[in-house]
Amino acid sequence: xxxxxxxxxxxxxxxxxxxxxxxxxxxxxxxxxxxxxxxxxxxxxxxxxxxxxxxxxxxxxxxxxxxxxxxxxxxxxxxxxxxxxxxxxxxxxxxxxxxxxxxxxxxxxxxxxxxxxxxxxxxxxxxxxxxxxxxxxxxxxxxxxxxxxxxxxxxxxxxxxxxxxxxxxxxxxxxxxxxxxxxxxxxxxxxxxxxxxxxxxx
Length: 202
What we know:
This protein is an alpha/beta fold. It has a single domain, classed as 3-Layer(aba) Sandwich (Glutaredoxin). About 30% of the residues lie in helices and about 20% in strands. The strands form two sheets. A six-stranded mixed sheet has the order 1-8-7-4-5-6, covered by helices on one side. Helix 4 packs across helix 7 (about 190-200). The two termini are about 20 Å apart.
């Protein structure tokens, strides 16, 4: 298994050219600004490009919290000290459904090593989120962060631009963003490499 660093290959042009997902908003407005303002617009399909951030260039730890689909509080206090995968998703998002088995496989592989996983549901009601988790066998929690609050999305948007769903982040043990995949992850091997690289930093 290769542990070579993933190249930082995020360009602005693919974002501007990205097609809106079915049922998702689109338009010419600045997507990052819409996310910061908790707008319902701006959900576009990312191109799967990956951004890796050197330890010396990472921002401050991201503090976030919310309520899961089970009604339990969950946030950065629960993940601090562990490498953490944060996946932004919603049930009607086709790429989210396509990548769900890869996230489950990575969770089953790395959770025994202490890696934490948390979803951030950006749109659904609790019943939809629970149905999705049952369908795909997802055992890790998801924070319900839909319209009216979006506190988790805004917390991360202050650190890295989050303008596509799905987006997957890998946080280091200090809670700082180490890697980002904009759009659907290519496969479980991509996520495995990002997690392994971050674990190797400890």
